[in-house]
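Mods, move this if it's the wrong board.
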Amino acid sequence: MKRIFLFLLFQATLNAFTQNSAADTNLVTVVTAANWTPDGKSLLLKLVRFDKTGKVPFVAKSFSFDINSRRLQPMFEGGSGLAQSPDNKTIVFCKQNGKNKGDLYLYDIATKQQSALLVDTFHKFAPGWSPDGKQVVYNRESNGRGRYATIDVCVVDIKTKATKQVTRSGNHKSYNPEWAPEGDKIVYYLEKGDGHDQIWLTDAHGSFHTNLTNDTTTLNYYPSWIDKNTVVYTLNPETIMTIKTDGSHKKKIEGLRSSLVKYYPASKQAVYITGEPDNKLMLYDWERKTSTVLLDRVDLNKAF
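Not the wrong board. Structure tokens:
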């Protein structure tokens, strides 16, 4: 589902730009991921620039974005899935190697040095920190690549580098693991290929797996956290919902449409990305139900 979303985002943006005036260039820049820093002052962004004619390979870069100053600061090329540690000192990210396989790396913010966290035979993506900063949850791809691969949720210990497989997806895919802001609960969504992706809850040991949404009518995906007892997720295609961790109190969030939302509890704000044709980075006030543009198409094109 995640890869399908990115493809559709690229294609939709490509079509929109193709229909614009001849003054436009062939280079298009889009936001494909956004994560809050623990202090809530900045966002970690992945921007992708691609050529809508297909003649030039796309380029991905990582940026830090200061919300108050609206300043984009380049970090390093090629990283994806950036997430900053609770102590604000380290960023975990996925780094592609020569065989187009993603491994987990750490980036020291003070020294700007990179070091390998987990390098093995598996393709890895979507890392995130535990609340105590001692572990990282991530997705691992096995049994091949692409649509026929198995995707599982795993956890790696920062010190020992010991790994644990949390889900047993079999022929299916467990995507987008997000660790709760407190405790050891992890939320993810399970894709079975039946058009009914569901939001599931587990813990760092995989000792239980609970289907939170139990929705047999459509897709439910991209979960993250409001607080330790509340999950926010997308109900296909762009309806934002919340649900309690016991499966109760499903609620639609009015005035907010997106496929991916990340909430910051201290400020009661959420960051989200709009779809085609503009692909803006937006800030949503959860209480006032108002949105503010952080980065628009012009800003994004200036980034590269």
